[in-house]
Automatic annotation (TrEMBL):
This is Uncharacterized protein. It comes from the Bacteria. It comes from Micromonospora nigra.
């Protein structure tokens, strides 16, 4: 048990070399994968969303990012500051330990450098997923080697 305050999570499958071993039970069940690139960083993204009266709402996003500019945690933070259009002076982040590395988080996202050039960013809808569930989900994402990528939930 992760200590998360919501229902027990489910497996999120493998995304671009990372196994998302836990997805909070409260997130939507509509799952989509996307590939994109921004400022010389390639993204593999998986989103979990739900249908609402107004359309769809994304509850959870996991980005696996690959790019030469992602050299260390400071470079990753700088990149994400630009990508998410954040004011670096007004972005309160706290450190957390992810395996053998240090990551940063706030109430709606967590990120860490898995190795130079490879990073993971987990984003949640704060009204749907709390900080404890965010952290538990981030900590449940681990590197896999040479594995077929099963569909989410398998």
């Amino acid at each position: 048990m992760s200590g998360a305050s919501g229902p027990v999570g489910r497996d999120g499958g493998v995304l671009n070399g990372f196994h998302i071993r836990q997805v909070p039970g409260d997130v939507g069940t509509e799952v989509s994968d996307f590939a994109s690139e921004w400022d010389d960083v390639r993204f593999a993204t998986r989103v979990w969303e739900r249908q609402t009266d107004d359309g769809y709402r994304v509850d959870l996003r996991v980005h696996v990012m690959r790019g030469e500019r992602l050299t260390d945690l400071a470079a990753l933070r700088d990149f994400l500051t630009d990508y998410h259009e954040r004011d670096p002076a007004d972005w309160p982040l706290t450190e957390f330990t992810h395996g053998d590395t240090t990551g940063l988080r706030d109430d709606s996202q967590a990120f860490w450098l898995a190795e130079p050039g490879v990073a993971v960013n987990v984003l949640v809808e704060p009204g749907q997923v709390d900080r404890e569930q965010l952290t538990a989900t981030a900590l449940a994402i681990v590197t896999v080697q040479n594995q077929e990528e099963p569909a989410p939930g398998q």
